[in-house]
Design goal:
By secondary structure, the chain is of the alpha/beta class. The protein has one domain (about 1-125): Rossmann fold (3-Layer(aba) Sandwich), CATH 3.40.50.360. The protein has helices at about 1-10, 25-35, 75-85, 110-125, and strands at about 15-20, 25, 40, 50, 55-65, 90-95. The strands form two sheets. A four-stranded mixed β-sheet has the order 2-1-5-6, with helices on both faces. A two-stranded antiparallel ribbon has the order 3-4. The two termini are about 30 Å apart.
Length: about 120
């Protein structure tokens, strides 16, 4: 994880993408995010007020799901992004690819590709 922490700190922005299984991000994604807990610290030993070392790092989340309804798992994504925000990420945009049942499904979805391009361009500002 130390190498990944260094990558996060040196990046201008982070794009965190995951397939959706059983209404949620994958177990691997959850474990990765859980391990980012090491980047938190207690501001004061007398409280449970945490600070973070990530310091408002710009981020975009990307979810790929077989379910065509892109809002079907919104509450799960809200929770996931809430944890990222608690860790110090500034989640700027969410991209959900619905109906992604083949390897090339995203590339063939003009709306998803345009949203991804716009999100990437916005991270540069």
């Amino acid at each position: 994880m130390a190498q990944l922490y260094d990558e996060i700190f040196s990046a201008d922005a982070v794009v965190l993408g995951t397939p959706v299984f059983m209404f949620q991000v994958t177990g691997q994604t959850k474990i990765f995010v859980d391990r980012l807990f090491a980047l938190l610290y207690l501001k004061d030993a007398q409280t449970t007020d945490f600070g973070n070392k990530i310091k408002a790092k710009k981020a975009v989340t990307v979810y790929s799901q077989g379910q065509p309804d892109v809002n079907a798992f919104a509450s799960s994504f809200d929770l996931h992004e809430g944890v990222l925000k608690f860790l110090g990420f500034d989640v700027r945009q969410r991209i959900v690819g619905g109906g992604m049942r083949t390897e090339d499904a995203a590339g063939g979805n003009k709306a998803v590709m345009e949203k991804a391009y716009a999100a990437g361009a916005a991270l540069l500002t």
